[in-house]
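Thread amino acids onto this structure.
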């Protein structure tokens, strides 16, 4: 990049190093070659084919080293595994790792002990809608979760890690604690449910508080006592180790699957009804504790109950006792009786229809008539049923154990939800079409002798369901007690909530003992509620909060369109995520607004606490990404440090060169910036004018107006400015160091290639190299487009290949740039090809495999090729090319001329130098603004060059120069012929440039764009070394039409992690 300067006679070429008594002095003494030899010895381990990148390879890894380290890297939170067990030799697939665990966690206690009651109370239509609503919430959440889970490698931790890494530590910590609380309360619900199955249906004689069928409080007290005892036993099992828990999980899963199959078989086995199960009904009211043999009005037992003191109940006198078949079968048409809802207030009788005479307790005495124990409604039933569809995070929690998590998590989770949703929805229809309405609404099966309704449907025996449901409920409870402490420990280890620090410690066996004790304590509080119908809506709030934030995280990332948001799962949309979020909030409020307030209040308190006491983590979350476009407050937040790798996007500083008319010289550099801005970053265009600002302020204003016009024409969204400085280089250095505000500072510089650096001399390439050094010192990325005139317009579409030549890893910018370009319509149809060079000791096959794995994790689709460059000897052509380069420098150094004469001789030497080089370049890079007259002169010179022999360095003879400096030129030529051996330091670099160029031209000559690493500039600030550096870059890019040379800023800009 060279900025505009006013040419005057005072400008010197700075090629003559010094002059004493009129005699030119050579600035390269003999000991310089010794220094070069020492450098060669120090860097002898570098591949000769990559010697041009030796300075970079000292601080930045070669691609083979980097890819190997990435391929072997794992970062997962400790899962619930046995610390004494050996690590598995093979990782799990979709079925074992995701689908079956999700099935086990989704199917739970509610399916067996509450679904029939939900269907009978809500009716077939409303019951179907309840199940469908809950399933829609989980399906939409699963879609959002799949997008997040496939956007990189997700460590174990489920929704906590997804939300915290997407929305930040405040949201992540708050939702993580809610998720932990929900998981802990789920364990309490499973324990209470298991106790209910045993005491109510399997062994009612175990009651220690009397006949609980007549006293609801006695039943719940039994649940509390036995639940506490069961919690202690399960807690002890988890404390002793997870080996039993993991083995029991298989048994529990088998029980769940077998039980469901038994229910379906039983439904069709009882298609015509079951003659063994009858209920006793008084009028339209359902009765309990009356054997079918005694179900007559004349029976003494009935008369003693309803006619104490010979005064009978009015409803008993006006209605008859009848026997009603409980399971009528699909062929009976009972489905039509179960279509409408039958919601009741607490204390109302369970009866057919909605007649107040039948459902209202007018006399105040209930006798043995079954009453509703809670007030029911559509929204309440959603809250009670919703825990039945939770557990969709089971697959993402095991991402560290999956062979291909990005493939298995979406497929396994969505298939599990589809499977369980099908089971639930069909169960609603089958139950409504098989069981009588009164029996469906009998929550505890009191009308049939305390039997579980689902168990009596199943084939071959009710004990299949009783034992299966009990074991599966125990398994789910153990899984919750195992997972919750580890989740709490993971939150504590993140150090975002200071008071949780003690729970980050593990025992000598690696078990989170402290977290386990806290989990048991919270679980005990849930057990003391003693009622599944109270626990289910409460824990539904916590899970709904988690699912809502998963949807929010996906929507935020999608709408922000951050460069790191590249999910491999493509079937998502921000609108689906917002619908899922809306459903979660709606269900929370509809189900129980006071429980919803409790959950939201808890989340707000934790959020504010983390904000003021913790939140020192930077995880590249979406909230930080949105802060990039906010005002003062967001700028202050961004001042805290550089953005995370996931939030990194090119904030571009375009250094635009102006011509003598103060018009941008390279218009297409703005088009390129526009095409790169699919990353939604910041763009600032700046030009530097040489002069005194007090004298040419008006020119600066005009130049800024012109610059803004070019930006508008090319649709560059950003800002522009013009700086006036005494020296161009110093002005550019000031711009690079100070441009931007707070977190809105540019991190990427686009600078034009100095096409006429040979003609203009050191004044041209000195500014370029000085800018490269300044950008590197500021840890900014540098992009140098060469052949900018051949780059496509922003309104054009091109097809073909974008080739990336990845030689040195400098943060992954070479991977990110083509991805960002492909977001623009101009480059969208291009395919990516990635080439990397294998060193002698590299395993090319393994290197290619590792590179494909790395790209797979990056979610970038590209063809991969590893190029093996033979360690061939340095060719005579390389020596010849190096010798001519050095001769040019020595001739310039030997010529003690003033500026005008020097420029003339320099041009002659340039022509003379290139007469001997016959390259196969596809493009002769030239300054795009050269006038046609100059092009005509170039053609004349080229014809002249073709007549000159270029077989060897000794055959070069300078053309005649009709000036009074002929003797000086001849003297310089004579001196050079006495020392024809080129510097080995330069030979090796020229060898690298030529060899790489040959391979790149062979593979990528027809590519639409070639992206490669820009070698670092020479550390020595010497004219000869800098001139050689420019020559190496010219050789490296010969024969390529559109080249993008890239140099990273020293930090990672792309990551495989979510």
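Threaded sequence (1058 positions):
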């Amino acid at each position: 990049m060279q900025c505009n300067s006013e040419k005057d006679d005072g400008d010197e070429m700075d090629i003559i190093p010094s002059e004493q008594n009129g005699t030119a002095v050579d600035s390269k003494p003999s000991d310089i070659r010794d220094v070069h030899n020492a450098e060669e010895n120090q860097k002898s381990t570098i591949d000769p084919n990559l010697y041009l990148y030796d300075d970079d390879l000292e601080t930045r890894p070669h691609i083979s080293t980097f890819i190997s380290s990435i391929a072997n890297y794992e970062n997962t939170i400790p899962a619930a595994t046995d610390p004494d067990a050996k690590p598995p030799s093979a990782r799990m697939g979709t079925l074992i790792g995701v689908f079956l665990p999700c099935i086990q966690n989704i199917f739970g206690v509610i399916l067996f002990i509450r679904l029939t009651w939900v269907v009978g109370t809500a009716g077939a239509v409303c019951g179907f809608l309840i199940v469908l609503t809950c399933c829609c919430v989980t399906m939409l959440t699963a879609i959002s979760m799949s997008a997040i889970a496939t956007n990189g490698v997700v460590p174990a931790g489920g929704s906590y890690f997804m939300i915290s890494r997407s929305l930040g530590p405040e949201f992540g910590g708050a939702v993580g604690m809610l998720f932990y609380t929900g998981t802990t309360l789920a364990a309490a619900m499973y324990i209470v449910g298991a106790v209910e199955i045993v005491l109510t249906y399997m062994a009612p004689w175990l009651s220690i508080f009397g006949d609980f069928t007549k006293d609801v409080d006695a039943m719940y007290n039994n649940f509390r006592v036995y639940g506490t005892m069961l919690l202690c036993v399960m807690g002890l099992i988890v404390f002793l180790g997870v080996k039993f828990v993991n083995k029991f999980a298989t048994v529990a899963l088998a029980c769940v699957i077998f039980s469901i199959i038994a229910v379906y078989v039983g439904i069709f086995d009882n298609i015509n009804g079951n003659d063994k199960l009858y209920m006793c009904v008084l009028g339209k009211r359902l009765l309990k504790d009356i054997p079918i043999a005694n179900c007559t009005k004349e029976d003494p037992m009935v008369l003693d109950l309803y006619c104490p003191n010979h005064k009978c109940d009015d409803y008993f006198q006006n209605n008859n006792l009848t026997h009603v078949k409980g399971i009528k079968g699909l062929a009976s048409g009972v489905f039509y009786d179960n279509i409408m809802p039958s919601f009741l207030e607490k204390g109302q009788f369970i009866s057919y229809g909605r007649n107040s005479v039948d459902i209202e307790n007018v006399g105040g005495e209930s006798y043995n008539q079954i009453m509703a124990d809670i007030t029911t409604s559509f929204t309440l039933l959603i809250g009670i049923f919703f825990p039945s569809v939770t557990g969709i995070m089971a697959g993402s929690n095991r991402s560290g154990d999956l062979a291909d998590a990005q493939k298995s998590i979406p497929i396994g989770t969505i298939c599990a939800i589809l499977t369980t949703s099908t089971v639930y929805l069909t169960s609603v229809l089958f139950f409504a079409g098989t069981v009588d309405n009164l029996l469906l609404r009998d929550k505890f099966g009191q009308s049939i002798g305390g039997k579980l309704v689902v168990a009596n449907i199943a084939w071959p025996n009710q004990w299949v369901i009783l034992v299966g449901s009990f074991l599966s409920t125990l398994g789910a409870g153990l899984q919750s007690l195992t997972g919750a402490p580890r989740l709490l420990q993971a939150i504590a280890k993140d150090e975002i909530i200071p008071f949780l620090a003690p729970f980050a410690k593990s025992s000598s066996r690696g078990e989170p003992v402290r977290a386990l004790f806290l989990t048991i304590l919270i679980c005990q509080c849930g057990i003391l509620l003693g009622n599944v119908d109270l626990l289910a809506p409460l824990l539904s709030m916590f899970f709904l909060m988690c699912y809502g934030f998963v949807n929010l995280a996906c929507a935020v990332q999608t709408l922000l369109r951050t460069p790191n948001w590249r999910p491999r799962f493509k079937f998502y949309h921000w609108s689906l995520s917002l619908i899922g979020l809306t459903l979660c909030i709606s269900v929370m409020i509809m189900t129980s607004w006071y429980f919803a307030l409790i959950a939201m209040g808890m989340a707000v308190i934790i959020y504010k606490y983390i904000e003021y006491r913790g939140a020192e983590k930077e995880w590249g979350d979406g909230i930080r990404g949105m802060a990039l476009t906010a005002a003062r407050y967001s700028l202050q937040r961004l001042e805290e440090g550089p953005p995370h790798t996931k939030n990194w996007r090119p904030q571009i500083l375009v250094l635009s060169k102006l011509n003598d008319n103060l018009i941008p010289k390279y218009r297409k550099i703005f088009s390129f910036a526009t095409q790169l801005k699919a990353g939604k970053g910041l763009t600032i265009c700046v030009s530097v004018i040489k002069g005194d600002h007090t004298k040419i302020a008006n020119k600066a204003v005009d130049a800024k107006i012109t610059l803004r016009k070019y930006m508008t024409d090319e649709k560059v969204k950003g800002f522009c400015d013009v700086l006036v400085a005494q020296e161009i280089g110093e002005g550019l250095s000031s711009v690079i160091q100070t441009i931007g505000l707070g977190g809105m500072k540019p991190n990427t510089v686009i600078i034009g290639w100095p096409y006429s650096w040979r003609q203009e001399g050191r004044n041209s390439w000195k500014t370029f190299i000085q800018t490269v050094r300044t950008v590197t010192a500021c840890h900014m990325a540098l992009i140098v487009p060469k052949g900018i005139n051949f780059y496509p317009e922003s309104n054009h579409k091109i097809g073909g290949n974008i080739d990336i030549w990845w030689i040195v890893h400098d943060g992954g910018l070479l991977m990110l740039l083509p991805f960002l370009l492909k977001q623009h319509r101009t480059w969208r149809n291009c395919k990516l090809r990635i080439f990397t060079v294998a060193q002698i000791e590299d395993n090319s096959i393994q290197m290619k495999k590792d590179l494909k794995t790395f790209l797979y994790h990056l979610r970038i689709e590209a063809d991969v090729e590893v190029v093996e460059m033979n360690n061939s000897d340095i060719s005579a052509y390389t020596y010849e090319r190096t010798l001519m380069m050095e001769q040019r420098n020595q001739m310039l150094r030997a010529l003690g001329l003033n500026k005008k004469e020097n420029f003339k001789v320099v041009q002659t030497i340039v022509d003379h130098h290139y007469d001997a080089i016959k390259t196969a370049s596809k493009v002769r890079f030239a300054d795009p603004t050269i006038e046609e007259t100059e092009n005509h002169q170039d053609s004349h010179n080229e014809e002249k060059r073709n007549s000159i022999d270029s077989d060897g360095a000794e055959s070069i003879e300078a053309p005649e120069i009709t000036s009074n400096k002929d003797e000086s030129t001849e003297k310089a030529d004579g001196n050079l012929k006495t020392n024809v051996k080129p510097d080995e330091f330069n030979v090796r670099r020229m060898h690298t440039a030529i060899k790489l160029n040959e391979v790149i031209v062979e593979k990528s000559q027809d590519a639409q764009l070639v992206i490669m690493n820009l070698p670092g500039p020479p550390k020595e600030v010497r004219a000869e070394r800098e001139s050689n550096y420019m020559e190496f870059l010219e050789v490296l890019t010969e024969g390529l039409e559109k080249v993008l040379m890239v140099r990273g800023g020293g930090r990672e800009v792309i990551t495989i992690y979510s």
